[in-house]
Amino acid sequence: MEPHLPKNQPGARRVDDQRVISGIIHMLKCGGRWADCPSEYGPSKTVYNGWNRWSRRGIWTGILVALTEEGWLAETGQIDSSYVEAPRFAGGAKGGRGPMPLGARRGPNDRKRPVQYDERRYKDRWRVETMFCRLKDFRRVATRYDKLARNFLSAVSLAAAVAFWL
User: Fold this and answer.
1) b or e along 61-82 (b: 16 or more beta carbons within 10 Å of the residue's beta carbon)?
2) 97 vs 138, higher pLDDT
3) What residues does the Insertion element IS402-like domain cover (predicted)?
4) Gap between the Cα atoms of 144 and 140, Å rounded
5) So what's the pLDDT on residue 88?
6) Which of 68, 95, 131, 158 is 20 to 30 A removed from 125 (C-alpha atoms)?
7) Cβ atoms within 10 A of the Cβ of 141, count?
8) Phi, psi values for residue 44, rounded to 5°
9) What is the chain's Cα-based Rg?
């Protein structure tokens, strides 16, 4: 990550970037207010300003692009909605209303044309589904707390980078 972070910034002396980035990742995971960032990551305003400033400059998406240039994500991406799946946390809470229908589920015999099994495409599809599953572990991404689209894109980019490469 370090080669992608800005250097020689004007203004006050820089704080430890690693500590600020750890605070940003913590806030992505827990999804709380930036003001509630634990003090071991530094002042919450410093953590938020680092997040917002680097998001504005496209640092987070640049890191994801740099990590995926040689990987499978640059080759292909596909999402197939041939069935409806519940997320991992959809088991229901204690005392809930019970099971709820999730929608029509199509089986393999319900296709208009048969699909041939391709091991490479199957593995690529599994990677895409795994990526969405891992992104849901980051509460700030799963619930889209950010107001700005660029900050949300940055949150998705950083969460993907953390989930798969770091």
Assistant:
1) bebbeebbeeeebeeeeeeeee
2) 138
3) 1-63
4) 6
5) 55
6) 158
7) 23
8) -60, -35
9) 20
Quote the tokens at residue 3.
Answer: 């080669």
pLDDT digit string, tens, across residues 106-134: 555 656 667 778 888 888 888 888 888 88
Contact of 20 with 42, CB cutoff 8 Å: yes
pLDDT confidence band for 91 (50 / 70 / 90): low
Instruction: Give the whole-angstrom CA distance, residue 140 versus residue 116.
Output: 38
Which pLDDT score, from 0 to 100, does residue 16 have?
A: 79
SS3 37: coil
Residue 41: predicted pLDDT = 92
CB 129 within 8 A of CB 31: no
How far is the CA of 133 from the CAs of 38, 159, 166, in angstroms?
26, 11, 17
Q: Report the percentage of the chain scoring pLDDT > 70.
A: 65
Q: H or E segment at 127?
A: helix 119-135
CA angle 10, 16, 21 (to 5 degrees): 105
Q: What span, in angstroms and rounded, lies between the C-alpha atoms of 134 and 163? A: 7
- Residue 12: C-alpha distances to residues 8, 9, 19, 158 (Å): 11, 8, 17, 26
